[in-house]
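RETRY 2/3 - previous attempt timed out on the joint model. Re-submitting the same 724-residue input unchanged.
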Amino acid sequence: MQEVFYFGAGPAALPRPVLEKIRHELLDYRDTGLSILELPHRSDAFFEIRDQATQLLRELLQIPEEFAVLFMHGGATSQFSALPLNFLGPGRSADYLCTGFWSSRACAEAARLAEVRKIQALCEGESLSIAPAQEWDLDPQATYLHCCDNETIQGIAFPGVPEDLKSALVCDMTSSLLMHPVEVDKYALIYASTQKNLGIAGLCVVILRKDLLERVNEPVPRLYDYRRYVRQDSVVNTPPVFAIYVLREVLDWVRKEGGLPVLHQRSLTRSAQLYRVLDESALYENRVAPEFRSSINIPFAIRDTGALEDFLEQAGQHQLRGLRGHRSAGGVRVSLYNAMPDAGIARLLEFLSDFEARQRRT
Amino acid sequence: MQEVFYFGAGPAALPRPVLEKIRHELLDYRDTGLSILELPHRSDAFFEIRDQATQLLRELLQIPEEFAVLFMHGGATSQFSALPLNFLGPGRSADYLCTGFWSSRACAEAARLAEVRKIQALCEGESLSIAPAQEWDLDPQATYLHCCDNETIQGIAFPGVPEDLKSALVCDMTSSLLMHPVEVDKYALIYASTQKNLGIAGLCVVILRKDLLERVNEPVPRLYDYRRYVRQDSVVNTPPVFAIYVLREVLDWVRKEGGLPVLHQRSLTRSAQLYRVLDESALYENRVAPEFRSSINIPFAIRDTGALEDFLEQAGQHQLRGLRGHRSAGGVRVSLYNAMPDAGIARLLEFLSDFEARQRRT
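RETRY 2/3 succeeded.
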């Protein structure tokens, strides 16, 4: 069978060498006589995994000393709740910059638990764009400003942190962490669940400036309390050992690939190739204004709307999978995470051209 | 190398056939062309895994129709918080029956978040025991009564639900679920994290009587809200796909082994063999009164206290691992979960006798 290439938005494809290493170590983790699935969370072998994962993240992202790296349960959604539970309350509200589906969802959850201000910054005209920073109407008293670095459903990228931003910036980087270098010290807190570029579902990486801990409320539910994770080095209860192990393996692969500058360049090149095909096409249409286009998740409509099911079926015959758009958006979505091999994007580009040519003939 | 037998309290050993099946399916899950680690959570393949896991749990535990089965993030500790967040508040308190470390920890977390009454039922005299039910001093107005079915650190088993109990009983069965039949309808809610008898860390199984949902507070953090899990069939956000897959495989193995009556009998036989060796020994000492002894986690002291490190070292040379007692208790602890093969308990019993004989000679 032809190799399958999976373009799903997450859980996403893992690098093949990582999968093979996991398989190789599955029955006996490095001569412990135990499977990695059985490894105790208070063993030296696990502490080594956790510490190496932390160290690799610190190196790859050049995380400054004053930030802590935490491994928390439950994915990014856990942080939608943990943020207001830790930091908001009487007299303390936050601003939420809404640029698409996920930032709006984070805002909605915070609004259930505390007082927040929703700043609608997604502009839906001819094309999709984000309102310029001077129009954001920020509250100078806000405890933090929340944003999303990359909206996977709209395919919109945050255009970068404004130079003169005064707010403590909290950023959901679930889909973009490890795809580009990050100036970590421009942020107060960064979080990302791991099922896209960092491994498997059920884990969330949090990078937070330690001085924020002084502002944490009492009480916060145990598994949402940032102070406990810092104090107990992410072993607040039994952590998801296997997910942290997969994270370490993925980080090691990222390092061997050349780190974030190399992966970022690869991502820009690949997405530019795809946007070129879309822009030159009479059949495919991406609606995002060029300066806000995501290089990670690229949604497009098929102008001949009746052709969508044919497109997906024929793509499937070419072993190009996971291309159906999010149920709220329809159409097609291509997710180009780090693990996608060159051969995958090449086969996709060829298929896009061939499909359009066939449509013209019929 | 001699086969390793792992007696750790959790994360615990998995059945060897389950590990081999996971390894076999790791690179290509049942001709999907995807690894199980890449499987999307909104795919038919995942829904099948979730539904089969649910169905197997329903069959094995004979769960009545009026109960829902939920798969939640974060292990049992998540439930320590979720219970008060969902059900307690102004005018609604709960009773917590404390019979050891874990029930006390559940109580402490609930007490941080709501009003609860702690009922100290662990009696520490000559031997450890649980106070009889008529001494519990329950609040008839309590929203629920929380208990722990098996205390892994003290090695104490809950003696069964009192016949005339009126309270809505909530039970932490983290270490005992799947080790004995359960009369589910005697409980209002049962929960168990999966890293002992059900699979790997990062997941919690919750079995709750659906009429309880009418009493849920507003707002509850999204990933702690039982109503959402029922409504969305445990896909509230990206669930821990791999942990649910491992759960399904373990449940399938339990079914093939003959189900809970068979595993329960096996557990009783094995633990009785071990207690016999301990009771006949002049060196080893288990302090739990016989009628409260756990058949699952069996802690004991070595009377010649200087011999503990020798014991653990020599056990390690016989590939008997994970025997060190919990850091709060010291001594030795033997955990006899379902996955332990007969050969493991046989080698342990032989070692216990041989070690004692050697000690007598020196």
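Chain B has two domains: 17-257, 259-361. Closing ticket.
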